[in-house]
Design a protein that fits this description.
Catalyzes two sequential steps in the biosynthesis of coenzyme A. In the first step cysteine is conjugated to 4'-phosphopantothenate to form 4-phosphopantothenoylcysteine. In the second step the latter compound is decarboxylated to form 4'-phosphopantotheine. Pathway: Cofactor biosynthesis; coenzyme A biosynthesis; CoA from (R)-pantothenate: step 3/5; Cofactor biosynthesis; coenzyme A biosynthesis; CoA from (R)-pantothenate: step 2/5. It catalyses: (R)-4'-phosphopantothenate + L-cysteine + CTP = N-[(R)-4-phosphopantothenoyl]-L-cysteine + CMP + diphosphate + H(+); N-[(R)-4-phosphopantothenoyl]-L-cysteine + H(+) = (R)-4'-phosphopantetheine + CO2. Its cofactor is Mg(2+); FMN. Keywords: Decarboxylase, Flavoprotein, FMN, Ligase, Lyase, Magnesium, Metal-binding, Multifunctional enzyme. The protein is of the alpha/beta class. About 25% of the residues lie in helices and about 30% in strands. The protein has an eight-stranded mixed beta sheet with strand order 5-4-1-6-9-10-12-13, sandwiched between helices. Strands 2-3 form a two-stranded antiparallel sheet. A two-stranded antiparallel ribbon has the order 7-8. Helix 4 links the parallel strand 9 and strand 10. The protein has a single domain, classed as Rossmann fold, CATH 3.40.50.10300. The structure holds cytidine-5'-monophosphate (C5P). The site of cytidine-5'-monophosphate has 14 residues, from helix 3 and strand 9.
Length: about 220
């Protein structure tokens, strides 16, 4: 395990959704199984990387051979990424909730029979943008994801600029693709030199190809 091309490289991977509490028993979240992030962490570890895997409450179990840090919220995920220490690369595959509930209740909100509860929201930190724009100690390679439903390459290219990351792995998550929650993915890798579309393949195969490409970029 520890003898591949990524031996001695520290790589942070975020994965899964975040859960933002409404009260102690309720939350808001994005849909995310954690399958692609988990596969990427496994592939990177398979190439010898020292992987810190920061995961929200995902459906799939974390891979073996990585350092697992379990979190619930976006704030906790950012703190865990910052606590992970200097990294050679970072891959942000998590489906982070864009907002948290600003008026989350300490006690379970009761059905009173008349007034409905009103939620107010606060914006969550953008972990990918925060790390991409670090002035010192930025990982050499920062990889983000873009799940889009239309105009995938145009939106993902704009996202790469806006966030300041090096690569964006873009995919089409329109319901008719069956990609969300499924075992296959069809991705386009957007870098400073252009867009590279890969054929549809298993999420494991995407992870292995991406891990090899990361190894070429940082070694
Ligand atoms: O803006 P959008 O959510 O589409 O960007 C997706 C990319 O940004 C993913 O790589 C995701 O992990 C990352 N992200 C993040 N923190 C957020 C929102 C998104 O790291 N608060």
């Amino acid at each position: 395990f520890s003898d591949g091309p990524l031996k001695g490289k520290h790589i942070i991977v975020t994965s899964g959704p975040t859960h933002e509490p409404i009260d102690p028993v309720r939350y808001i979240a994005n849909r995310s199984s954690g399958a692609q992030g988990t596969a990427i962490a496994r592939s990177l570890a398979g190439l010898g990387a020292d992987v810190t895997f920061v995961t929200g409450p995902a459906e799939v179990a974390p891979p073996a051979g990585v350092k697992v840090v379990k979190v619930q919220t976006a704030d906790q995920m950012l703190a865990a990424v910052q606590a992970a220490g200097a990294a050679d690369a970072a891959v942000f595959a998590a489906a982070v909730a864009d907002w948290r509930v600003a008026n989350a209740a300490d006690q379970k909100i009761k059905k009173t029979g008349d007034a409905l509860p009103t939620l107010t929201f606060a914006e969550n930190p953008d972990i990918l943008a925060t790390v991409s724009q670090m002035k010192t100690g930025r990982p050499v390679l920062v990889v983000g994801f873009a799940a889009e439903t239309d105009d995938v390459i145009a939106h993902a290219t704009a996202k790469r600029q806006r966030k300041g990351c090096d690569w964006i792995v873009a995919n089409d998550v329109s319901p008719e693709t069956g990609i969300m929650g499924g075992s296959e993915n069809a991705v386009t890798i957007i870098t400073d030199t252009g867009a590279d579309s890969w054929p549809r393949m298993s999420k494991d195969a995407v992870a292995q190809a991406l891990a090899r490409r990361i190894a070429e970029a940082i070694t």
